[in-house]
Design goal:
The complex is a heterodimer of chains A (287) and B (242). Chain A contains ten helices and 13 strands. Chain A is an alpha/beta fold and 287 residues long. Chain A has a six-stranded mixed beta sheet, sandwiched between helices. A four-stranded antiparallel beta sheet of chain A has the order 2-1-4-5, with helices on one face. In chain A, helix 3 packs parallel to helix 5. The longest helix of chain A is centred in the middle third of the chain and has 16 residues. By secondary structure, chain B is mainly α. Chain B has one domain. Chain B contains ten helices and two strands. In chain B, a hairpin with a 2-residue loop joins strand 1 and strand 2. In chain B, helix 3 runs antiparallel to helix 5, helix 5 crosses helix 6 and helix 6 packs parallel to helix 10. The chains are: A alpha/beta (287), B mainly alpha (242). Chains A and B meet through helix 2 and helix 3 of A and helix 1 and helix 4 of B.
Chain lengths: 287, 242
């Protein structure tokens, strides 16, 4: 299978702080790969290195076969990036922002016109095209950033916390847009600290903690390794204990044999947060 | 390069009146306060004070509009709108980026100086706008735009920009021979003031406007400042892309 991203022992240090620690990563062409981890885990730094914004301290990183340091210009031609923060010129209209990005990628006049119209329609923003960006909602701005990142038809799309700060409805609309892009053949690398986002969108998930990739796999595989069923037990009204089981029968059997001081027993499906907590000892959204 | 300039031209097109008005307030105040107020009845080197001060005011207009036009928007793009990374992630060269960001300062500098020059020609028919004058004016706009790009890239906060403006730009506005002749000052002070690019811009514009002997060394020094600022801006851009 063709690999779109390959890193070997990729490391980025800021002084004494190691933001990325010997990261070995492979992302296949055509997949949605999710980087799951808490704030400060190294997700954004990884994207900054892969998108040529930051040079690694050591190790190598290739995107579409091009070295991000030695062939940064080639990398820039094949990537689209949606940053975590709104990165639009808020004094300009949505259409002007799109035009600006299309010009940066050397699209011809007719290409610019057609592509902007096509993408604004694709993502449902045609009616907002001539509004000043500052007047748009957060969800519209995020969708506009996706449009801006796709103008030059990138093979590889980086989404850094694409739905952070958005309400549930807007988040789901954005997920739909991401799924459509994937179905159209775009490889997507997204970072998130939302468990449900990683589970809903990603074919494979890498769990990153303190700059290190600590586990990787399909969401189901990761949950299977832990146990597909979780039993939460409140012991002595103080501490919640988590036990993981391969199936409900095993979980039920465990519950039936619990001592009387075990209260408030919950049996539920395991999720990626359970995987993360077991691997790192902390919750995903925690700082 | 035009792709970089284009976005700032769109902004200018939408806000041209406000931009022009705000860039003309200071020079017109200086013109009224110094040219007509304090300076009426004074003469310098055989010229009326108004004739003497007008080229200086044009020079400082070139400086403030070009420096602000290039630097402030760049600063806002980097630290407030945070859209500057879009340039760095696109397949556009750093040279084109630096030049594109410089050119918006040049355009804004020229718009403001042409407006103040029009006022100057109206109230001072003896003002000579020769090709040499235009050359110095355009060169000055480039030099101060390069400075704007450099400072816009280096400033890490709005406070940094304000500090530089207060400690460097403001003193340069008043001390660079814009409002008085440097020949009145002690040699040591004069030597320090020749370290400021506006001093050379003022001298060259004044010499061209009043048809005095043209200070070619000053002009070359001004160009030298421009080269140094451009090199500094390129260095800052390279640093930003690491």
């Amino acid at each position: 299978m063709e690999e779109m991203i390959v890193t070997e022992a990729l490391t980025k240090k800021y002084g004494d702080i190691t933001a990325i620690d010997t990261l070995d990563l492979k992302v296949n062409a055509g997949e949605i790969y999710g980087f799951l981890g808490p704030n400060g885990a190294g997700k954004t730094t990884t994207i900054r290195v892969l998108t040529t914004l930051t040079k690694p301290t050591s190790g190598t990183a290739f995107v579409n076969g091009f070295d991000v340091v030695k062939a940064a210009d080639k990398v820039k031609e094949v990537i689209g990036v949606v940053q975590q923060h709104v990165s639009l010129d808020r004094d300009l209209t949505l259409r002007e922002n799109m035009e600006f990005r299309a010009r940066l990628h050397h699209l011809s006049s007719s290409e610019r016109k057609n592509r902007i119209a096509e993408l604004l329609d694709y993502i449902g923003l045609t009616e907002e095209a001539d509004r000043i960006v500052n007047d748009l909602s957060g969800g519209m701005k995020k969708r506009a950033m996706i449009v801006g990142s796709l103008l030059h038809k990138p093979k590889m799309l980086f989404l850094d916390e694409p739905t952070v700060g958005l309400d549930a409805q807007t988040r789901r609309r954005l997920w739909d847009s991401i799924r459509r892009l994937h179905l159209d053949g775009t490889t997507i690398f997204l970072t998130t600290h939302y468990i449900e986002e990683a589970e809903a969108l990603c074919q494979r998930v890498g769990i990153i903690h303190q700059g290190r990739l600590i586990d990787i796999g399909k969401p189901l595989e990761l949950r299977q390794r832990l146990g597909l069923v979780t039993v939460e037990t409140l012991v002595n009204n103080k501490e919640t204990r988590y036990q993981y089981f391969a199936d409900r029968a095993a979980a039920t059997s465990y519950v039936q044999n619990l001592p009387p001081e075990a209260k408030t027993i919950i049996i539920r499906d395991s999720n990626l947060e359970d995987v993360f907590v077991e691997l790192t000892g902390r919750k995903v959204g925690a700082d | 390069m035009y792709s970089v300039l284009w976005v700032d031209l769109r902004f200018l097109r939408r806000h041209w009146l406000r931009t022009l008005a705000t860039s003309l307030v200071n020079p017109i105040l200086y013109l009224v306060a110094f040219g007509y107020g304090l300076g009426s009845g004074i003469s310098f080197d055989g010229y009326t004070y108004l004739a003497f001060v007008m080229p200086g005011i044009i020079a400082l207009t070139a400086m403030s509009s070009s420096y602000g036009g290039a630097g402030l928007k760049l600063h806002v793009d980097r630290l407030f709108y945070r859209c500057f990374d879009e340039y760095l992630m696109s397949p556009i060269s750093l040279f084109a980026l630096a030049l594109g960001k410089t050119l918006i300062g040049v355009v804004r500098g020229l718009i403001s100086t042409v407006a103040i020059l029009a006022v100057g020609v109206l109230i001072l028919p003896t003002l000579i706008v020769s090709p040499l004058f235009v050359l110095v004016l355009v060169s000055s706009c480039f030099v101060f735009s390069f400075l704007g790009v450099l400072i816009g890239m280096l400033a890490k906060s709005h406070q940094d920009l304000t500090t530089f403006n207060t400690l460097v730009i403001l003193p340069m506005t008043f001390l660079s021979g814009t409002f008085f002749s440097l020949s009145q000052l002690p040699e040591a002070v004069r030597a320090v003031l020749y370290l400021l690019p506006l001093t050379h811009s003022s001298e060259c514009l004044r010499a061209a406007a009043l048809e005095q002997v043209f200070p070619w060394l000053s002009f070359l020094t001004l160009l030298g400042f421009g080269l140094a600022f451009f090199a500094g801006g390129m260095w800052a851009l390279k640093r930003a892309s690491v």
